[in-house]
Amino acid sequence: MIFTMNTPVVESVLDEQRRFAPSAEFAAAARVRAADLEALRTQAAADPEAFWAGLARAELGWRKLFTRTLDATEAPNFRWFVDGELNVSWNCLDVHLAERGHKTAILFEGEPGDRRCLTYRELHGEVCRFANAMKARGIGRGDRVVIYMPMVPEAVVAMQACARIGAIHSVVFGGFSAISLKERIEDAGARCLITADGGHRGGNVVELKAAADKALADGCDTIDTVFVLRRTGAPIQMRVDRDVWWHDAIALQADDCAPDWVDAEHPLFLLYTSGSTGRPKGIQHASAGYLLGAKLTSRWVFDLRDDDVFWCTADVGWVTGHSYVAYGPLAAGATIVMYEGAPTFPDGGRFWSICERLGVTIFYTAPTAIRALMKLGDDLPAQYDLSKLRLLGSVGEPINPEAWMWYHRVIGRERCPIVDTWWQTETGAIMIAPLPGVTSTKPGSCTQPLPGVFADIVDEDGHSVTTPEAGGYLVIRKPWPSMLRTIWGDNARYLATYWEKFQQRFYVAGDSAHRDRDGFFWIMGRIDDVLNVAGHRLGTMEIESALVAHPRIAEAAVVGRPHEIKGESVFAYVVCRGARPVGDEAASLTRELRAWVTEQLGAIAKPDDIRYTDNLPKTRSGKIMRRLLRAVARGEAITQDISTLENPAIIDQLRG
Ligand code: PRX
Questions:
Q1: pLDDT digit string (tens) for 581-596?
Q2: 420 in the Ramachandran plot: left (φ > 0), alpha (ψ -120 to 50) or beta?
Q3: Which residue of 165, 537, 600, 649 sits 20 to 30 Å from the alpha carbon of 443, by its own alpha carbon?
Q4: Can you give the pLDDT at residue 13?
């Protein structure tokens, strides 16, 4: 598959014929059956607003019911359920107390093997106590709170507590560096940071408080409170006027806290994600619409039932950990699993061991993890009893048919439907995915849009691409409740990034896709300068800026290169100040630059390959020839015109 901005219509070479229908047994018991899906689609097509209004009334608990469904007066800054009032935390916790108070909400396992179990009542109590602790420090409605935590129940408690008091959380993945944390705190103008002494990952301790101290050492003046959870027990520094231990803060707090009823459109959270410029963007979600999307899709796509044990392996630092750990399944009253550590600690059987021991019935993970575990062979999963599993999910990047088949055969034992779910930080909830009791799946396709989602594929002129297998831009034609509202502090960027390309007629996802003869969607990848490394979004410009911040580097260009496990890896071309390093000097600079990028951005952004060159190939107008660089990184033949290159000899340098 070849797809570039200039040639959007291409033939897909992937011709996958296999189809997997749900078993009659699964289909008969499913929450959404064929007739239900038909009815939902018909309602959504007839009157999308009435469709969403009906669901919002039925699924959410309102303090004050809305009377207006969609406000498009400032389109494309759409607003949903505008005059309604509710509280997200109340909808995730309080609603269950009467009937499910004693049901397990969270089954937690730490990497060292420690375990905890919290019922809905206990989780409610913890959330209230921490909400009261925040209030005691003067934190309230509209304040931004940055959460930099390991994957422990308190991360969810902190998020829910923010929602309870109307504070806006912004979770920063614990693998991001101090510099990235600082940048996000400053952009959000946060007054509170919630962190931990550390977390366990891959047998090591991730020193979160030390990184937080570094972030706060210079700048971040808006922060007046830092809550610190004791997790590892490692010694850390506490600044008395600012830092408070979590356990001290909640010690005297009541386990009840009245929710702050907020407007439907009150921002629930910001989540920073990479775009095609150097600065990450704070994707802003609104309370009611987001919760509706997260809850409904948890039910529809994961077929959640009362006795399910649902495990989404995503960290809360990513949107998947928001929608399918912290919010959606809790709103649906499910039992969720949280695991702190790495999938391969102490060995590659950890995921399967957790599935066996905790009785996981629904398992949702990323293709990169599936591929990494697949590489370890079939023997490891064979050692565990996975018979409780009944549904599998995939998210974050295209899943290659080989990994899909392995997941189906070795983990699902040819019994479990697989839901390949396409969505984004911006969409808030799953958009294109199978309904597991209805859809016959095909390995590698996320199948069809959910009811109420008007996804399409269009060409450069915005016309729907109807030829089967022809690719184009993936767009969403109508607004939907869980869509992002804006980019924090930069609405112009919101308009430019998602709406400008087709004169605000539809939302542009930034992915290319094609549809097959059955109308199934196949995602082909990003069309902007965004990489997808191990399911994580990284802007090439961010990595380039980090590289050129190094004193030895004059210029850098970063592209993606296909990687067997990570999907894509970071490939950097750099021009040094002074002579181009070779031999040992180059090897040592490469080590230094990899450590440098880790420090600037985090280990996930570290380049796998670095090539030194005297200059970068540019067009006459001075644009870096990225397509050429991509071809070289992939070891492909160069097909484009390179006659404009000032120095054709650099092609050899680029090739290394
Ligand atoms: O390129 C698509 C890819 O991940 C991007 C969104 O990344 P992020 O906002 O970090 O959210 C990831 C988790 C929802 C998309 O633009 N992507 C996500 N899911 C899939 C996918 N690509 C193919 N198939 C998927 N199921």
A1: 999 999 999 999 999 9
A2: beta
A3: 537
A4: 47
The pTM for the full model equals 0.93
Instruction: Kindly report the average pLDDT of the chain as a whole number.
Output: 94
Instruction: Please choose, from the candidates 274, 151, 281, 171, the residue with its C-alpha nearest in 3D space to the C-alpha of residue 533.
Output: 274
CA distance 272 to 488: 9
Is 545 exposed, middle or buried, given 0-12, 13-18 or 19+ CB atoms closer than 10 A?
middle
Cα gap 130→126, rounded to integer Å: 6
User: Can you give the pLDDT at residue 314?
Assistant: 97
Residues 6+ apart with CB under 8 A from 199: 149, 150, 151, 152, 174, 205, 206, 208, 231, 232, 340
Note the pLDDT tens digit of each residue in 192-227.
999 999 999 999 999 999 999 999 998 999 999 999
DSSP state, residue 398:
P
- Ligand 1 probe mutation, 1, 271, 394, 397, most atoms within 8 A of CB: 397
> Average pLDDT in the 89-100 region?
98
Inter-residue contact 297 to 429 (CB < 8 Å): yes
Atom of ligand 1 nearest to the CA of 318: 10
The verdict on the CB of residue 568 being under 6 Å from ligand 1 is no
339 CA to centre of ligand 1 in angstroms: 22
* Cα(483) to centroid(ligand 1), Å: 15
